[in-house]
Each structure stands twice: as C-alpha cells, then as structure tokens.
Amino acid sequence: MAHLTDRIKHSAEAAAGKAKQTLGRWTGNRRAEDKGSRQRFVAESKKLGDKVIHAAEHGRSRVRRWSHRRPDMP
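User: That's the sequence. What structure does it adopt?
Assistant: Structure tokens below.
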C-alpha cells in the first residue's frame, strides 16, 4: 500500500511543479519557472525509482530485451 501512496504523492509533486513552471512562464518569472522545472524533474525521477523498486520486488523487468537472433538481421 505504501507503494501506491508514494506514487500518488510523487504524481502530485510533479503536477505542482508543472503548475509552477507554467505560471512562471506566463508571468515571465524565470525563477519560478526554474523552480517548477526542478520540482517536476525530481518528482518524475522519484516516480521512475518507484517503478524500478516495484519491478525488482516482483521479480520482473520492464525493459525490453533484444535477442541476438532478431528476424531483420542475418
């Protein structure tokens, strides 16, 4: 359950960062735009970390693995 609450919290942080970034862009406030951009980046990074942890806990990889015998290669 903690995983779900973390995902919700990080999504809310990303949305708040997007709002700050957009507001800063509209008002011409470069500092607010940069702060929102950083907040959004941090939140998106945390969300990615949550996905990696979730995949590791469940023993699966979400990364597509390429076979050395691809059909389009001789």
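The mean pLDDT is 81.
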